[in-house]
Amino acid sequence: MTIEIQNGRIVQALQRFNDPLTADQQEAVDAWNEHFSKKGKGGSMINIHELTTDHKIKLKKPMGCFDNLGEVCEIVKIDTDENVINFRFGVDGVHLGVMSGDELEKIF
Predict the structure, then answer these.
(1) In the predicted model, is pLDDT for residue 92 greater than 80?
(2) Partner of 36 at 20 to 30 A CA spacing, among 3, 43, 48, 55?
(3) Over 60: is that where the pLDDT of 93 sits?
(4) Is 36 exposed, middle or buried (0-12, 13-18, 19+ CB in 10 A)?
């Protein structure tokens, strides 16, 4: 089975030779989409494995002294093995932040 995911939601799923899904497979796809549509309410989900250093992230909740809501930060490093990102923030990106991928969606 091959699937296409956009914004955390399965938008296309087909079996080998592009055959349609079985009832069991469709049930699994529907369960996935239902689970993640609830999780993603109020904003799009961020998946650390889909990020690149070309992406920017925007602060939506205060994080310690970093409370400039709406600030757009530059991603400078992504370590998917350790599930961590490094990002720059502040005027001209003078500060460096580090965050786990698990916390990323909650804060940005």
Answers:
(1) yes
(2) 55
(3) yes
(4) middle
